[in-house]
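[job 4471] stage=fold_predict status=RUNNING
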Amino acid sequence: MRPLIGISCCVKPFGPSGMPNHAASDHYVRVVLGPVGGMPVLLPAAGEEVSRELLTRLDGLLLTGSRSNVCPTHYDGPCHAEGTPEDPARDSTTLPLIRAAISAGVPLLAICRGFQELNVALGGSLDQRIQDMDGRMDHSTPSDQTIARVRTGKAHPVRVAADSGLARLWAGLDYDPAAVPVNSLHNQGVARPAPRLRPEAWAPDGTIEAASIEGARGFAMGVQWHPEFDWERDSLSRRIFDRFGEAASAFAASRSVLSRETIRLPVAAE
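[job 4471] inference complete, writing structure tokens
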């Protein structure tokens, strides 16, 4: 059987009445069905209790990107600028879910907003509107990209640490670790890394673009860019999902049932 991969959802307004819906991009569903080799399960942004029940059934957790930003109350940051989209329901679901997944050894891959959630869940903080900060660059895809390439266009390079898990994951592939082009689409990023967050890749302005989790029992990594958009043509993006899928399959094979006692939801950052 395919491993069950939980995909984090956002709460978004749909239709003329703006009715709230739980949603995740089709890109994440397709990548789970594709290189991950799993069965996608959409996780509603419905709070901590839902997380507790669902995690006992999952073999992997994929934290998605989103236009919304993690509420700064979760990392003692300043209020967002007016008009900045937030999603408190998602925060209340994913932050405890991240801590529980890492504690239980459930394989975890965090992308963009998910990467920022990973850092906040474990006690780190975020920079807001990086493009407005002195000495920093715009981390969104260049505006001269055509509509067809806005999600796959490479915004800037990243430098990958030679002794990192990411470098080992990409072993054997043809790339320059000093300048890996990535399709970046974000305006917030890691400010203070969580105690267990191990940075593994950086943008030219020093922004942390990838990391793993120190002492994690299973696969646990995050990237600030969007490999789900170009995995069909980019071998580095494809390898990330291949390895995540292998970890999820191994996790599924190694357990019969995770008891409720095994899955803990710590309320404070570990």
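[job 4471] summary: The helical segments are 26-36, 48-55, 88-104, 113-121, 165-169, 235-254.
[job 4471] exit 0
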